[in-house]
């Protein structure tokens, strides 16, 4: 008589229970990781656009402005009176929009800055911080604009 090989029902139940326990820890950590990356990429995109606007102002020898916009169809910073950077932002030079950045769903921004205008020297008209958070406020990233023109993005700080 040959003996059957395989798993017993008890072994299978124990294996499934172990997998369930491991997944109960892995899924929330993965969700937090995705939220952190989303917020960080949003902050780095804004920092990149601000640095590009600063470089463009120096290259052109004229003022270039980056402003928060209520939607991506706004044609000037005068029509984009908002300080909500989580919707979208535009870069304007010589009265023309040269770049539009679309918003990402689920990111919230907090700041008092509605725009940053770079002079031909590369200096911004105002300094401050723009802080991005995910909708659940579990992770954040910020963009810092110094009075002398330095722009820095950082974050991913869990709460």
Describe this entry's structure for a reader.
There is one protein chain. With 159 residues, this protein is α+β, with helices and mostly antiparallel strands. It has a single domain (9-158), classed as minor pseudopilin epsh fold, CATH 3.55.40.10. It is 33% helix and 31% strand. It is built from 1 helix and 8 strands, in the order H-E-E-E-E-E-E-E-E. The strands form 2 sheets. It has a 4-stranded antiparallel β-sheet, covered by helices on one side. The radius of gyration is 24 Å and the shape is elongated. It starts with 8 loop residues before the first helix and ends with a strand. The mean pLDDT is 85.
Number of domains: 1
Counting H and I runs of at least 4 residues, what is the number of helices? Answer: 1
Shape by Cα distribution: elongated
N→C terminal distance: 62 Å
Q: What is the CATH C-level name?
A: Alpha Beta
Estimate what percentage of residues fall within beta strands: 25-35%
Strand order of the largest sheet: 3-2-1-5
Q: Give a short account of the largest sheet.
A: 4 strands, antiparallel
Radius of gyration: 24 Å
CATH superfamily: minor pseudopilin epsh domain
Which secondary structure elements does this structure contain, and how are they paired or packed?
Layout: H1 9-60, E1 64-69, E2 88-93, E3 96-102, E4 107-110, E5 115-118, E6 128-134, E7 139-145, E8 151-158
Antiparallel strand pairs: 1-2, 1-5, 2-3, 4-6, 6-7, 7-8
């Amino acid at each position: 008589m040959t003996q059957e090989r395989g798993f017993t029902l008890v072994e299978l139940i124990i294996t499934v229970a172990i997998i369930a326990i491991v997944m109960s820890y892995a899924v929330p950590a993965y969700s937090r990781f995705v939220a952190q990356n989303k917020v960080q990429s949003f902050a780095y995109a804004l920092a990149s656009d601000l640095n590009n606007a600063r470089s463009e102002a120096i290259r052109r020898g004229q003022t270039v402005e980056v402003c928060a916009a209520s939607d991506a169809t706004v044609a000037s910073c005068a029509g984009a009176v908002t300080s909500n950077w989580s919707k979208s932002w535009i870069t304007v030079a010589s009265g023309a929009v040269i770049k539009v950045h679309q918003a990402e769903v689920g990111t919230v921004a907090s700041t008092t800055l509605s725009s940053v205008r770079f002079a031909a020297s590369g200096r911004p008209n105002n300094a401050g911080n723009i802080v991005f958070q995910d909708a659940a406020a579990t992770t954040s990233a910020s963009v810092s604009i110094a009075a002398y023109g330095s722009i820095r993005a950082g974050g991913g700080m869990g709460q």
